[in-house]
Fold this sequence. Notes:
It contains 8 helices and 9 strands. The protein is of the alpha/beta class.
Amino acid sequence: MKTILITGASRGIGAATARAFAAPGTRLVLVCKENKKQLDETIAAAKALGAEAFGFLCDLSNAVDTKNFFAKLDANHMLPEVLINNAGMAYFGLLQDMTDAEWNRILAVNLSSVFYCSRAVIPHMLNAGGGVIINVSSIWGSRGASCEAAYSATKGGLEALTRSLAKELAPSNIRVNAVSCGMIDTEMNSRLTEEEKRGFIESIPAGRMASADEVGRFIAHIANASEYMNGQVIGFDGAF
């Protein structure tokens, strides 16, 4: 039975990815920081599709908590063959107004958590003879966005980490790729007014936002792609 761990799984892209992977013969380990109600809804949806699904609350931006969480998974033989690093947060505002705490928080959630989770699963994947790591990034990681400098910086770092780690792990049959998302219709973008959304959509050649379910299905597709597909940051942005 293949075990798939998805972070930030209570809503949005994480929950959609869980549904995309959910099938008989699949075990899902679903993690979020604190939203147990929504996490339980994701678990129920995955089970309805035939998967085994287990939920955990953990602050993956905390190194000690993450280490203890993976030790618990190891003790229960639940370490994953596939790791989806999806947990993330946004920050909207001028960089000059950002506090040290806000800067450190977004770095910890968007970048350090990926380091902690990847570091924890790599030994298991090495022993298993292979594995898959997929990081969820953003087009702002390569393009940059005004008033989202910190968020863009973390996603740029995530993409560099993806490419570098792939080179490090490819000889061991471990694939590391990233999906660089454009405008996705999720709660993270709910802060935008309808006018702002329309203005952004006008700049997307596809003429619309993508749904979280579309991203989830694409992530599942990448996880099952050829073993030769490695070290890639794959755009999912409607030709933006």
